Amino acid sequence: MSTTLDPGIGEKFSRRTKRAINHDGSFNVRRRGGPHRHDPYQWLIRMNWWPFIGVVVGFFLLLNVAFAGGYLLLGLNQLAGTSTVGGAGHHFLSALFFSVQTFTSVGYGHVYPATNATGFLSSLEALVGVLTFALATGLLYGRFSRPTARIHFSHSAIISRRADGMPCLQFRIANQRNNILINLEARVLLKTVDAATNDQRYAFLPLERDSVNFFPLSWTIVHDITPDSPLHGLGPEDYARLDLEILVQLKGFDDTFAQDVHARNSYTHDEIEWHRRYVRAYEVAEDGVAVIDLDLLHQTEALG
Amino acid sequence: MSTTLDPGIGEKFSRRTKRAINHDGSFNVRRRGGPHRHDPYQWLIRMNWWPFIGVVVGFFLLLNVAFAGGYLLLGLNQLAGTSTVGGAGHHFLSALFFSVQTFTSVGYGHVYPATNATGFLSSLEALVGVLTFALATGLLYGRFSRPTARIHFSHSAIISRRADGMPCLQFRIANQRNNILINLEARVLLKTVDAATNDQRYAFLPLERDSVNFFPLSWTIVHDITPDSPLHGLGPEDYARLDLEILVQLKGFDDTFAQDVHARNSYTHDEIEWHRRYVRAYEVAEDGVAVIDLDLLHQTEALG
Amino acid sequence: MSTTLDPGIGEKFSRRTKRAINHDGSFNVRRRGGPHRHDPYQWLIRMNWWPFIGVVVGFFLLLNVAFAGGYLLLGLNQLAGTSTVGGAGHHFLSALFFSVQTFTSVGYGHVYPATNATGFLSSLEALVGVLTFALATGLLYGRFSRPTARIHFSHSAIISRRADGMPCLQFRIANQRNNILINLEARVLLKTVDAATNDQRYAFLPLERDSVNFFPLSWTIVHDITPDSPLHGLGPEDYARLDLEILVQLKGFDDTFAQDVHARNSYTHDEIEWHRRYVRAYEVAEDGVAVIDLDLLHQTEALG
Amino acid sequence: MSTTLDPGIGEKFSRRTKRAINHDGSFNVRRRGGPHRHDPYQWLIRMNWWPFIGVVVGFFLLLNVAFAGGYLLLGLNQLAGTSTVGGAGHHFLSALFFSVQTFTSVGYGHVYPATNATGFLSSLEALVGVLTFALATGLLYGRFSRPTARIHFSHSAIISRRADGMPCLQFRIANQRNNILINLEARVLLKTVDAATNDQRYAFLPLERDSVNFFPLSWTIVHDITPDSPLHGLGPEDYARLDLEILVQLKGFDDTFAQDVHARNSYTHDEIEWHRRYVRAYEVAEDGVAVIDLDLLHQTEALG
After folding, report:
1. Which of C107, C256, C297 sits opposite D45 (nearest CB)?
2. Within this chain, do residues D129 and D183 fall inside the same structural domain, yes or no?
3. CB spacing of B176 vs C37 below 8 angstroms
4. Of D6, D33, D102, the CB nearest to C106
5. pTM of the shown model
């Protein structure tokens, strides 16, 4: 095997690890100890939408229940316009509705603070409320404007054969979005594991082409298995024995976000199909427009 | 023809395609199948202003009509300050106006929620309202702050002749904005189509200069048609037969956005004028300031 | 004179131009004709603070006067809580105050829309109001967060002499801000004008060092006037005859904005002092901290 | 000692300086004189959270107290709904609560401006209020979204020995966050001080590897002390005599912020442990996930 290097993932492990890179681009790594491990902004930016909405609504409820409790402690009779008849539940709801009207700055005014104590508390709540929504504004913008590449990877990599008989490793990608990626660059690494020591070794796999100027359709990334290739002479059982993993790193300039975006993925040995080729995933429509079918991206056929 | 390469647009097509790059920089590509093809943020950021305003107003109306419907379902008598005389239309408008006053957090208070049910619904609406405007804030900022190059391209490319008799392909660009583009780089590709197979071939066209440090005025981009040029020896009828297209890619640093911006355009064979030269598009005013005339950018004259 | 090149400013002019680059980094260029020359976002982002505040207040007044006019047209008796006694001025102010309370979503509610017509108009105004402030939020953020380098240039460049007798062109820069610029790069061009033809010629001036890793203090940028230098053998009267201008371009990574920032400046022939050297602009305080004096940056003394 | 260079920190000092780079990445530099040294945006963005919250609350209080004073000057009887009985303190609080309700656009309406003078003042306050919160929104977003690397550096650098006996300087870093840094590059400089002249000299220390593709776990950065190394043949007492400082500069692409981030640190001679090696800081959990322990990052053991 040719030159080896550690791409920053680590070489010496006490036992076998899971795949290095998951299909969503994350690494199988956890943190322990140390200071400041959690950054609330990054957590709120990267979480999914439904949990995020849950956090926002939960935070809103929590604060309003707390302020409603404060008004109840001061006494509902300090809020003009509320009725002090009815049970505790009714009292709480009166305070809660007043709290929400203050927090969101709706302030209908049929209930209003009639004493200095409620005057101070409602002033504080109004300030907290507008600042909370200022914060929510920033978070919503941060979530939307975070540049992410939506690269669609073929489910499997394949071992195929070129017209001249050269065997090659291939996988295929497409841009899921309508935006244009410019100067897209690919880097592919091979990870193998020594069965005896669990040591992990890495090697770069040279590519037929490692960049394209534009990326409107699909791109089949090809590593020729020349005699110099670390894959030369290996069969499916070798791939399994070496716990082989193909690590893929992509970088390009996104025309909408006007920033560089990155994508990662990997193919483990059981995600590689042998002696296959990809069917063409795009065609030209009647109006002369090229049409890419993202579902066809994964489709392979046996070599002739 | 010299070295060919695929810049990422594709080489093998089942039939002739439209031009690769439109004048607005987009590609003639559609997507089919696959997950998550639409990204609402990118859609809302890239759409024109009038449709965007339509979406915002429509969304505002939709939500307020829905909440107004909710208040009507609960019963208008649960909103203190509304009159229950008058027809259904009047009732609906009363509910709608209360809804808008809650959604925008105006909350005059001459109408207010008099029961727990309307208290809850109006609290929800107030929350939805402020979050909606938080979202609108982010979208408006995202639309304005998206770095885009406003490069003005001459309508036609020309085949001209240098002082030493060397034929050359030229086109001209200017910056429409008052900002300064720094380190502007140009890359020009030639696309030709094989009439028999519809295969598309690409070649880089070397430029007299491929970058300028500053871009305050105009820049005439020149490819010399040397014996090595893929354009050497071709006439207008060859250009048409080859369905020739000149693809232009520009990249520079925008001083206002403080980010790299990109621009694309292309010239098809019928957008190339033969034996012309550009008239000068700038002059020096009395006060010593250089003045560029964007309308003159397109103007050509016959070679002497 | 060695290799000449056009950095993108233009070579052939009908008469002498003003200096190419002003001290604020702008170019002496105007635009005429063409589409979309004005980008309101860029205009609002780059204007000074007082005019910006004027635009905001003016826009606010304009919209509120317009809405107030609308309420007056509908009739003040359609707004409950207003008094219809008093003159036209009083009526207008009543409508204006109601308008502001709606536009800013304060909505005290002592005045409120009593009819469908004013209900619609005030709903529209509430929507316009919140969207206007959404826009203002984006503009304020855009103004503040725009990455700009605050590089302090010495007022004059100098012609000095190194310890080994080599003459050199020098100028000095310092960072006005407390942030750190990283990997700061300098590029210096010489512009000369042919007195007969008004043609402008440009040449790069090689630097003793063209980048520094960090930029916490000051940096003296040095071009050695070797026999190869285009400045070799020229005296002050030659500088004036050639209408010589030294163009400076700086680029570095700003640690606070986390983005590349650029700065430009130029020295014309009458901003170059002969046979001077810079006095040291920093010293070490008692506590071991280096202290740079930005006022000393400009100070030169006669060569010994 | 091999090639020396000034990385931009300065070479000639009138006396010994403190360490060049502090552990938080800042430089020991102060500014004096010159224009515009303070940029309020940068100050508000980089200050800690508690002082920032103090500034926000203080600014809010200041403005509201000022507007409350304005209402008192006009006379509390111009605000309908307030009681003019009670002392000055009660009057002030009535005005203050009305001010807050206007500033935050809550506007309950039990107090409202009853005259033109208070109508104007409350209109102005409503405008100032919404613009203030627009500004706060931008500041909050700017604080959260500012890309910063949270690199955890080992407390000490070590002088260790490779398997082949080669002595080396090492230090270790880990990513505190769960995000991924891509293409992380390290640059290490040696600063030494001439005891006689206080001149500072700098030299690059070549690294075993100066970049990693990914940075999910930890990275031990190694400079081999070959005969060519400026550290060759030096012992602890030499380090102290030379006031030696190891300057570290890191740069990588942050996957969450989608921007380059930088980090700096330094090790002074008393932060270097001799004849030690680092204990392994990560292990593989039962589920095959690599677990890094940030507390173990600092732990060293004696060379065997």
Report:
1. C256
2. no
3. yes
4. D102
5. 0.88
